[in-house]
């Protein structure tokens, strides 16, 4: 008798690079995505019996991704495109019951054109990379109850949003014992690379029409502004709240600022049920110049710092709606 069994299996294609131009006359819109598409279903025998008859090749999954990148009307929205791709996969293949789609969106912004005495104009087809942070979505398409009862579970957010404030942050009154060497400060640099994720309430995905096609109609309450289907408003809101709260909060700690950010996102976006931040400290240590009689250690006098990448603090928390 075997002492082990296959308890879960999934496979698919990772790092699918997609760039799409949507041509609207002289004006173009562009998106660049990194896509991961994984599937689950009745695929056990491919692992346990070396039977490939149930395997949709990962190359085919890549090709489906590019097909929908060309044909889907939802390509400009990471959430909508991910829902469409996952629904396509579980609808086309009867033996596949779940799809896990991750879409990471890289930043491109129109180049502003400045002419004397005229308003700034955004160029219709020229762009620049206006930041290294990335918007992302991770979507689970669940068809285990049937192809006409598909449920979408959507988590979205931001990765690698690097921020810094040169004052307005303190860290005091923490535990002190024989292991403590850290000095309490009432003014310090606060810098972190923000990873934010927020979880939408699940929603039903109507069956795809015809040949799996181009029309995926989500309607009613599930299509309201602020839902996963209308996610651009939440993405803008979450980014704005994160940046403004970071800037304006007189921070007593990373933990306290994190909690305020998450509370505001949930209060502002009624279809978001859960928010998680992960905030690694980016340490800037004032250079000790006492040896030449210069005070660069007192917080109000500290002006020259050494950036340190490691070791670093790592603070994370999840805040949920009641």
UniProtKB/TrEMBL annotation:
Family named by the database record: Belongs to the uricase family.
Keyword annotations: Oxidoreductase, Peroxisome, Purine metabolism
Catalysed reaction equations from the record: urate + O2 + H2O = 5-hydroxyisourate + H2O2
SUPFAM superfamilies in the record: Tetrahydrobiopterin biosynthesis enzymes-like
Keyword RNA-binding: no
Function according to Swiss-Prot or TrEMBL: Catalyzes the oxidation of uric acid to 5-hydroxyisourate, which is further processed to form (S)-allantoin.
Pathway of action: Purine metabolism; urate degradation; (S)-allantoin from urate: step 1/3
Protein species of origin: Rhodofomes roseus
Family matches, as Gene3D superfamilies: Urate Oxidase (3.10.270.10)
Main location group: other
Transmembrane region(s): none
Protein name, as recorded: Uricase
Biological classification of the source: Eukaryota, Fungi, Dikarya, Basidiomycota, Agaricomycotina
E.C. number(s) listed in UniProt: 1.7.3.3
Family annotation (Pfam families): Uricase (PF01014)
Localisation per UniProt entry: Peroxisome
Keyword Oxidoreductase: yes
């Amino acid at each position: 008798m075997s002492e082990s069994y296959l308890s879960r299996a999934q496979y698919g294609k990772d790092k699918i690079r997609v760039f799409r131009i949507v041509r609207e006359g002289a004006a173009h819109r562009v998106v660049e995505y990194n896509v991961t598409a994984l599937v689950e279903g009745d695929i056990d025998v491919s692992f346990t019996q070396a039977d490939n008859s149930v395997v949709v090749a990962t190359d085919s999954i890549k090709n489906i991704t590019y097909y929908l990148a060309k044909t889907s009307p939802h390509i400009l929205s990471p959430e909508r495109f991910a829902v469409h791709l996952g629904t396509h996969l579980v609808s086309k293949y009867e033996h596949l019951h779940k799809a896990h789609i991750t879409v990471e969106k890289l930043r491109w912004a129109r180049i502003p054109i400045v002419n004397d005495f005229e308003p700034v104009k955004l160029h219709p087809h020229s762009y620049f990379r206006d930041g290294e942070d990335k918007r992302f979505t991770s979507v689970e398409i669940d068809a285990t109850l049937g192809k006409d009862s598909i449920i979408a579970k959507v988590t979205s957010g931001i990765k690698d949003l690097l921020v810094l404030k040169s004052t307005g942050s303190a860290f005091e009154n923490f535990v002190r014992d024989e292991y403590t060497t850290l000095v309490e400060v009432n003014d310090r640099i606060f810098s972190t690379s923000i990873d934010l994720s927020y979880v939408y309430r699940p929603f039903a995905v109507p069956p795809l029409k015809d040949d799996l096609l181009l029309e995926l109609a989500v309607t009613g309450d599930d299509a309201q502004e602020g839902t996963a289907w209308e996610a651009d408003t939440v993405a803008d809101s979450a980014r704005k709240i994160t940046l403004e709260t970071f800037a304006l909060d007189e921070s007593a700690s990373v933990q306290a600022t994190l909690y305020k950010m998450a509370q505001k996102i949930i209060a502002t976006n009624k279809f978001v049920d859960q928010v998680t931040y992960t905030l690694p400290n980016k340490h800037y240590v004032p250079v000790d110049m006492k040896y030449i009689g210069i005070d660069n250690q007192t917080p109000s006098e500290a002006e020259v710092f050494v950036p340190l990448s490691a070791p670093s603090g790592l603070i994370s928390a999840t805040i949920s709606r009641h």
